[in-house]
Amino acid sequence: MATRGHVQDPNDRRLRPIYDYLDNGNNKMAIQQADKLLKKHKDLHCAKVLKAIGLQRTGKQEEAFTLAQEVAALEPTDDNSLQALTILYREMHRPELVTKLYEAAVKKVPNSEEYHSHLFMAYARVGEYKKMQQAGMALYKIVPKNPYYFWSVMSLIMQSISAQDENLSKTMFLPLAERMVEKMVKEDKIEAEAEVELYYMILERLGKYQEALDVIRGKLGEKLTSEIQSRENKCMAMYKKLSRWPECNALSRRLLLKKRRIIKAIKYLFHVFIPSSLEGEVHYSAEEAVKFIEDQITEESKSSRHLRGPHLAKLELIRRLRSQGCNDEFKLGDPEELMFQYFKKFGDKPCCFTDLKVFVDLLPATQCTKFINQLLGVVPLSTPTEDKLALPADIRALQQHLCVVQLTRLLGLYHIMDKDQKLSVVRELMLRYQHGLEFGKSCLKTELQFSDYYCLLAVHVLIDIWRETGDETAVWQTLTLLEEGLTHSPSNAQFKLLLVRIYCMLGAFEPVVDLYSSLDAKHIQHDTIGYLLTRYAESLGQYAAASQSCNFALRFFHSNQKDTSEYIIQAYKYGAFEKIPEFIAFRNRLNNSLHFAQVRTERMLLDLLLEANISTSLAESIKSMNLRPEEDDIPWEDLRDNRDLNVFFSWDPQDRDVSEEHKKLSLEEETMWLRIRSLTLRLISGLPSLNHPVEPKNSEKTAENGVSSRIDTLRLLLQQLEVAVETGKRFIEKKIQYPFLGPVPTRMGGFINSGCSRCQISSFYLVNDIYELDTNGLEDTMEIQERIENSLKSLLEQLKDVFSKCTGDLLEVKDGNLKTHPVLLENLVFFVETISIILWVSSYCESILRPYKLNLQKKKKKKKETSIITPPVFTSFQDYVSGLQTLISNVVDHIKGLETHLIALKLEELILEDTSFSLEERKFSKTVQEKVQGSYLHSLLEMGELLKRRLETTKKLKI
User: Fold this and answer.
1) Interval 582-601 mean pLDDT
2) What are the residue boundaries of the structural domains of the chain, listed by start?
3) Signal peptide position in this chain (predicted)?
4) 79, 26, 34, 75: which is closest to 52 by C-alpha?
5) Pairing with 141, which of 109, 158, 263, 542 sits 20 to 30 Å away (CA)?
């Protein structure tokens, strides 16, 4: 809350201490101070609202809301109360209540510019575009200022954007907005650049490109001054829309001659030379394009400052001519020679590789080795000897050599080597890396070392060996090199990202948390790269860290709503109208984020796993999350995959790199897995709603209470879950292999292959059978009881089968090499989760069976008869619970055995095969192994503790 200045109003003076307490985070003192003030001044509404803010911030939401509504019901018009209520409602995430507040204030004070303005902004926060239009015009009538009028116009545009019917948008909303602006144009009332931008936006959306062009080129276009070349860029866009290629060509030439590095202008220019449409005659030939580029290169050669643009334009034109099937490319020269000349001129610049990367496909496959040797021939290196490499003498030579090495990998020359050759390349690259460190001794910690790419390339080659041969020696060496590289370049994000990926693949989550944190991801990056962390958060058994990681991601998504609303309001205030649709599209993109839906679902499942029936009951946990089985809040049709699947630097050839097909398959897999998890969560959330006292054979009463509809919901969800799992099975049978640097496979394969999917589905079928027994009573359900008995036995067997896939050592020494088995860890995590679900189901079963058994015992005592036979379903359930206890105890003992084995491993005695580590490298190797070992121990400890708590709940299952 803003610090308040000195004012004469005595009420402000009385309220000041409360404001100060709230500003300093002392909420309890703020509440006490407000109570004291309210005893003396009962009608001081603002004090009551400030007290509500204090209550809200101390977790007493219901009490705070009640107090706020008491004040809101009085329809206050004093500024203090209104502002305080606005702050409170924002903190409650109830912006719709702010609109009601100011609607009432405007009725009482109809000529207040301030209140009308606040009302408009309140509507903006909730996206009430129609009401925004009306509020804007009402404001304009009170205070005839242009911004208010154009607020109303912009609100019409927003109605057109949000309209479901595109025809309605183009026939009603946009034409009305156009007429409103034209009225201001005719009256010569257009004052600001923002108003011209808005007019242009309307005409463009209506498809009136000629009219838009006239506006930009006319008197109104002179107001477009805030952005460099804004006018020219808009003209260029309209020329393109109108297919007026001569004008587009002339403008492109003018821009290029003015500033020869404008890539956009070059692309427009080529767009003119090479037709992209069958309609419209092309007035310019390839010869003219060639001549134009040659003129630019000649002009550039006279300058002391070399420009890359003209040289790259030549290669770009060759590529475009080739793709269009033209035969004129020979007029521009041989691509191989052009790239060679480019390298000679710009090879010492770090951008040289990225410049040439897009053109390597112009080289014939048979010429790749020759091309690389040609490049190496012009790199100034020292004379090699038997025991010494040819090394660069300065940074410029290092950059040139580094560019050649990157191109070597990009052209696939490293991929065709055998294992020994690749290991030889790794040794050479690491020697060059160590030598390159000499040039970076004066670098700051925030700067990257000049030779970092040598280390990264060596790591990529080692990863190839690991993936192709399965030799884990390579992966341990990879981790060693990355950890060493990170000590020299603590800010190298690529080192950190690779360490995150590899540690997670080995099942070690503990070192990853700090690594990801040190990346210092900002804003949207929590969505684009957050999947690297959250994918493994829960799956590796470190529940506390997983919970923290999910919270970290969710905080960003939750703040997005509030932040984006503020961006929109600021855009209205400052007339940045063209940004408003972008902000709203951005907000929608984040709200519909696949990652957001995944983290939200996993977070709730994790909370239930850690708390339900341990610290709180399952029913209380579900109530606190506002979960309802019949509600699906995931926008399946609008899900957006915002993951950055190209976050890793890659020098792989195109056939080995991440393709669009990989991205499409990954999205399909992620959506399938999310559906399975979402249905599982909804099925769990439906269990407490079935837990009710029911007399036998009272199906009519049950239907009245809505319980039958709940079981119908659960049956439907169970069918959907079976279909989703079957679809998932068919997908994993395809055995899709993603590139190492591409998408991460989901947990779906492990979930299905471990048997946990079958186990969980069986447990939910047991719920259905128990419900039927409860509805029909004991006497008429012999078939159902038999089904329940078989289900209980089958469920126990299935759990044992799942456990059998968790046995084995996580780390073992084989032939002097260290071997990891992370799949065992993932299976254990799935087992713990499945046990928890089965125990919640068992708790429901117990709540239904116990009253029946008590009734039987009462009957026996009352009639003093021993002839009343106890149905075998009770014995079966007790045997099942006993079996569960034994199984969980065995798993706890197994986890203890794994811990003992890990602690007994003497990793420092291991010498990794095929390496000749220096003392420094041995230190890093030991650190890496200890991190993995320590992480495994931490995971086992947390899983063991959780299973012990679950064992305690199992002992309470008695009927």
Assistant:
1) 94
2) 754-959
3) none
4) 34
5) 158
